[in-house]
């Protein structure tokens, strides 16, 4: 759910013929980091934690809003991956291979360790998504990132693992999308096509996959909402933001603030909007697309601040660990405030969960995520050196 970022203030280097074929009409841009991207990731993971936090009945609409924080992750991922590829495609000998290496070592080390941790902690017994218990094939499919295509494996081994499966499936199509999606019109067309295909898949294909689970309500309700076909239309919204960000002048500060306000207001209205024409993930993705583009000129300081940016940088670990943090808070801290005002109970539960998850994530980010990324970079450097040595021998 995380990409690298790049600067739209580019060195407009001239592309070679091969590079033009790979990316027609695309300028070369210089890679750099953006604080607003980290802030967006921070917002996304705070929404996800909110979705799983037990709230008082009067506040449960916040659970609904938080439930779509993953869609913000998806939009930001599509946006930043296009930035990253555009910054690198003219400088690398095998950009597609290197893209997959980077993505694997960005996701796999922390995800695999999370899988082992939750399997050890929770065991192999029945779960809502695995009514017959967890078996070897479900573990293997999770490690292969194809669990998202199986109703009783999609969210079984790692809590929230469905989104990792969707994200990894998306990666398969990113290089092709980068080559073909060169205009906002094409990105919109892709969005519409994927939305239609997703609804058709839910209508005609999902029932076939769900037939063996007629008595398992959790699977029947959630699988059609989580699997890749219904989520796929979310990602082109990130492509649209990328194209607007890199092909047009920066938003004036006034319009940046207006779009950001509209997006946040729409997010709070959205839980009361019923039967949208588009699938719900896409409905929320459009809102998040407005938020991303609104913040792309830097974003308001209340949102783009050092604390939220830090949460965004460790957000993948927070995503993986917040389920454990919730169980720890419920077991050890919640009894201390059971007598206080109910809304305050919700606030205390949420803030202590976030604090615990971020504290643990500071460790896993430095000890697992960063070393994993370093291995990926070292592998790429080795392949580049070998390619250079072979070229000299010719």
TrEMBL record:
So which domain of life are we looking at? Bacteria
Q: Which Pfam families match?
A: Acyl_transf_3
Please name the GO terms of the biological process aspect recorded for this protein, alphabetically.
polysaccharide biosynthetic process
Molecular function GO terms recorded: acyltransferase activity, transferring groups other than amino-acyl groups; hydrolase activity
Q: Which UniProt keywords apply?
A: Acyltransferase, Hydrolase, Membrane, Transferase, Transmembrane, Transmembrane helix
* InterPro entries linked to this entry: Acyl_transf_3_dom (IPR002656), Acyltransferase_3 (IPR050879)
Keyword flag Hydrolase: yes
Q: Where is the Acyltransferase domain?
A: 35-360
Q: Which PANTHER family match?
A: ACETYLTRANSFERASE, ACYL_TRANSF_3 DOMAIN-CONTAINING PROTEIN
Protein name as annotated: Peptidoglycan/LPS O-acetylase OafA/YrhL, contains acyltransferase and SGNH-hydrolase domains
